[in-house]
Amino acid sequence: MGSGSPPPYSLAWWRSRHKALSARRRRVDAELDAPIASTIADPGDDPEVALQKKNRGELLRNSLASLSPEHGEVIDLVYYHGKSVKEVADIVGVGEATVKTRMFYARKKLADVCTEN
Question: What is the 3-state secondary structure (H, E, C) of the chain?
Answer without folding.
Answer: CCCCCCCHHHHHHHHHHHHHHHHHHHCCCCCCCHHHHHHCCCCCCCHHHHHHHHHHHHHHHHHHHCCCHHHHHHHHHHHHCCCCHHHHHHHHCCCHHHHHHHHHHHHHHHHHHHHHC
